[in-house]
Amino acid sequence: MSGSLLDGYRAALASVHGHAAVAAALAHEVAPQGPVHVLALGKAAEAMLAGAAAVWSKRIACALVVAPAGASPDVGSRGLVVERRPGNHPVPGAESLAAGHAVTRFLGRIATDDTLLVLLSGGASALAELPRPNVDLPLLRELNTRLLAAGLDIRVMNALRGRFSKLKAGGAAGLCPASDIRVLFISDVPGDAPASVGSGPFWAPESTVPSEEVPDIGWPELQSLLERTEAPRPVERRPVHRLVAGNADARRAVVRASAEAGRQAWDHGLFAALSGAALAAHLVRFLRGAPAGVHVWGGEAPVRLPEQAGRGGRAQHLAALILLLWMARGWPRPIELLSAATDGVDGNSGSAGAWFGDRHRDTVAGVRARLRRALRSADTAVFWESLGQTVPGTETGTNVMDLLVVRLGPPSGDARRGRGSYSRPSGMHATGFNPSEMAAPGVQAGLEGTPDATG
Fold it and tell me: CA 137, 140, 142: angle at the middle one, nearest 5?
């Protein structure tokens, strides 16, 4: 992988890191006079707590951190009284239930005149769970497993999760007697809606009438289960929620890094509302005729999993689909691509994502067939590992959905004559341009034949 892609990815992670995001937000906020109790919940919990400690350490009386099992305590939180509870992810388990009870106890002990500072990030839905009456852990696990396999929009998934949990859809707010509750959140959902981040533990709905139709997730019992569960109560009070980092910040950081390196770059916003091969085909059609330079998108591309799925994640799956279509079109122009999760964990792949580029693209036979098998079985991690083209996984201290960063060389003759012509959508941002030759290592094969039906 060339340095330019990795530099852009690293710049994006730094711009949305939990420590920096929270510290910057609190530096401009008036600190409470009384004790502050901190609930840090989600994949970025440790980093966010360290950011709060950097600014409000003298005010923080105690903290509860609920993070993925194995998360390392941030050195910036040393000196604080901190209780740490691991949770299960992406499907809730016994540790998630224990964490949910710890959250309940923690919130209930806060005095009315004290302040609760909530540091919320993606992953919270599974990490802490407190089922509603007549809902047990096996049911919750079945629900979440089917929701994840169905490839649904995260907002729909979290709305459904809220029907089965006492902590979600504003439930956590009702467990805390404090009159001053402040929520700082890092968004891992399109639109950055507080109701969807962590399934909105402190964001109660405005109505008891469900806003979403019940989706088909291959589980006929879902409809009857919903009918037997009490809908979340409508809003009585809704704490102030403040977004401190999101995918847009990460994309802007990639554009800035490209500008500093003298390359033209475009921020194309979130992925189109497509999934799987349709999204990949949409992106490939655009990239064939797009101008040379760096192009960045963000979001999460839903993947519908087969009955027996292998190892992989959304980012690796999308990279594999784009590579397959790019080869089917005869490798129309120089390209290097990085597709990675900002939390450093792409599904169950064991890495953050995948990359590919031009060098030695014609040296590996049978790549197309291997790609198809990997995509059919949702086993893309093995494919990328065999090429040595994974993005190393690491604890990033943030979670703002995935990033797709593509660097294009000059278009081929066909593209110059108008195939896949390019027009800049409104809202895109460009930086200065200094042409440079593509030099990304890779081992893809531009194989002949195999027509592609996606156009």
Answer: 110
How many whole angstroms from its chain centre is CA 424? Answer: 26
Helix H or strand E encompassing 139? helix 137-150
What are phi and psi for residue 447, nearest 5 degrees? Answer: -80, 150
What do you get for the CA distance between the two ends of the chain, in Å?
29
Only one residue has tokens 């106890």, namely 105
The residue to which tokens 């027509």 are assigned: 451
Overall residue count recorded for the chain in this entry:
455
Q: Which two tokens stand for residue 196?
A: 């969807």
Q: 130: alpha, beta or left, given left = phi > 0 and alpha = psi -120 to 50? A: beta
Domains, the chain? 17-245 (3.40.50.10180), 247-430 (3.40.1480.10)
Burial 8-45 (b: 16+ CB within 10 A, else e): bbebbbebbbbbbbbbebbeeeeebeeebbbbbbbbbb
Structure tokens, 31: 């600190």
358: left (phi over 0), alpha (psi -120 to 50) or beta: alpha
Q: What is the DSSP letter of 164?
A: S
| Structure tokens given for 1 | 């992988």
- pLDDT tens string for the chain (455 positions)? 667 899 999 999 999 999 999 999 999 899 999 999 999 999 999 999 999 999 999 999 999 999 998 888 877 777 899 999 999 988 999 999 999 999 999 999 999 999 999 999 999 999 999 998 888 888 889 888 888 777 777 777 877 888 889 999 999 999 999 999 999 999 999 999 999 899 999 998 775 555 566 777 777 777 777 777 777 777 677 899 999 999 999 999 999 999 999 999 999 999 998 888 999 999 999 999 999 999 999 998 888 888 888 999 999 999 999 999 999 998 999 999 999 999 999 999 999 999 999 865 666 667 888 999 999 999 999 999 999 999 999 889 999 999 999 999 998 665 444 443 333 333 333 333 222 222 222 222 222 222 222 22
> Phi-psi bin for 251: left (phi > 0), alpha (psi -120 to 50), beta?
alpha
